[in-house]
Amino acid sequence: MAEISVITVDGPSGAGKGTLASQLATHFGWHLLDSGALYRVVAYAVQQAEIDIADVAQVTQAACDLSVSFQSGRVVWQGTEITDVIRTEQMGNLASQLAALSPVRAALLDWQRQQARAPGLVADGRDMGTVVFPQANLKIFLTASAEERAKRRYQQLEQRGITANISSLAATIRERDERDQQRSDSPLIPAPDAILLDSTDRTIAEVFQRVLQVACERGL
Ligand code: C5P
Predict the structure, then answer these.
(1) Which residues form the pocket of ligand 1, taking CB atoms under 6 Å from any ligand atom?
(2) Relative to the CA of 176, which ligand 1 atom is closest?
(3) What pLDDT is attached to residue 183?
(4) Distance (Å) from CA 218 to ligand 1 centroid
(5) Which residues are CB-contacts of 54 (< 8 A; sequence separation ≥ 6)?
(6) How many CB atoms sit inside 10 A of residue 69's CB?
(7) DSSP assignment of 10-56
(8) Phi, psi dihedral angles at 48 (to 5 degrees)
(9) Which DSSP letter does residue 124 get?
(10) Taking the complete model, does pTM exceed 0.90, yes or no?
(11) Which tens digit of pLDDT belongs to each residue from 139-188?
């Protein structure tokens, strides 16, 4: 079977990965993997089952038993749509805590790899280029200043009708990024062969054009 083309987009929260990944998937007509949403769904399942985050065996079991489907941007868990409820900072924070547990990451690995289906996949997350798809054709590591990321996340939440306070948002984003960068399993770091892009002073349209240029140079 021919190799499936994969583009990975990794980076910290609020750098614009989600928008970039979704634009790339639409452009190429490829599948899209929002791996952060997967960790958020586990967080939601853990919360619903009132599992203590310190109980690693039960949290891992929740990840193994996960019944979720992603349909054109909608997230459905056990028959219930949870697209918006998983987007809160509280859910992001819980997701980041359980994402630091190696057995949870291991439980989600196969499912993520199975998303690499023809004609191609754009995968967005923290460890897409380093761990999940180390053979990806193109790896992007997208960053932006902490202030800019907090501002973008604030606007994103506002658009979804979720109220937030920008300074506490900046603090939780910082806390989450530090945890994601410092964990021992699959930390948030660029793959050695990733292309680093800073979106602080660039629009997403500019970043998108730059990525398309590199993708073209790679024959994608
Ligand atoms: O990208 P998003 O903010 O939705 O991710 C939520 C959390 O899930 C992140 O803070 C991170 O801890 C975790 N995550 C991860 N690996 C991924 C994607 C997300 O550890 N590939």
Answers:
(1) 13, 35-37, 39-40, 92, 95-96, 99, 125-128, 176, 180
(2) 10
(3) 96
(4) 27
(5) none
(6) 10
(7) E-STTSSHHHHHHHHHHHHT-EEEEHHHHHHHHHHHHHHTT--TT-H
(8) -60, -40
(9) E
(10) yes
(11) 999 999 988 999 988 888 888 887 888 888 889 889 999 999 999 999 99
HSE, side-chain direction, 13 A CA sphere, residue 148: 14
Say which CATH superfamily domain 5-211 falls into.
P-loop containing nucleotide triphosphate hydrolases (3.40.50.300)
Domain ranges of the chain: 5-211
Measure the CA–CA gap between 16 and 118, rounded to whole angstroms: 25
Q: Is 69 strand, coil or helix?
A: strand
Substitution candidate for ligand 1 out of 35, 98, 113, 179 with most atoms within 8 A of CB? 35
Share of the chain residues as helix, strand and coil, in percent rounded to the nearest 5: 50, 15, 35
CB contact set of 89 (below 8 Å; sequence gap of 6+): 153, 157, 164, 169, 172, 173
Amino acid at 2: A
Contact indicator for 102, 36 with CB cutoff of 8 Å: no
Tens digits of per-residue pLDDT, 201-211?
999 899 999 99
